[in-house]
Design goal:
mainly alpha, single chain, about 160 residues, about 0% strand
Length: about 160
Amino acid sequence: MEFFTIEFWIAFQLIVDLFLIVLILNLFNNIRNEMREHAYQEATEQVIETIEPLLKEAQEVADTFEVQLKEKKNLIKELNESLEKRFISLNLLINRVDKRGTPSPQKQSNVYDQQEEILKLYKKGEDTEAIAKKLSMPKGEIELVIELKKKFLEMAKKINI
């Protein structure tokens, strides 16, 4: 029975030891990999928890900004309309001064009303001569008001108001 000699048992012990060392190394490697994966997962979750409130806040800021842009656009539109009325009024006053002399204060207060009436009649399809006769105004003033309104509308379309 030479198989059961001391040399056999030493060789057998070495093989068993090597097998156990390989198993232990494999176990340590698996544990280390699981720990890394767990650490990566925790780090990812922490990053997501950190970024999520920032994204919500950024969305709120973007929504607020959008509302403010709409408000500013409306304000610009209102200011342009107001400026248009004043510009037409000033041009009418200048035109009257050139034709008649200094306008009376009573006539100045009616300028806005006259402008509105001119534009209403024009929208109804009446021509400048008919409007001038109805309102007892010079035909040049009527044409001026209408042309200024058209130019303002073209300008407003260009800037997308």
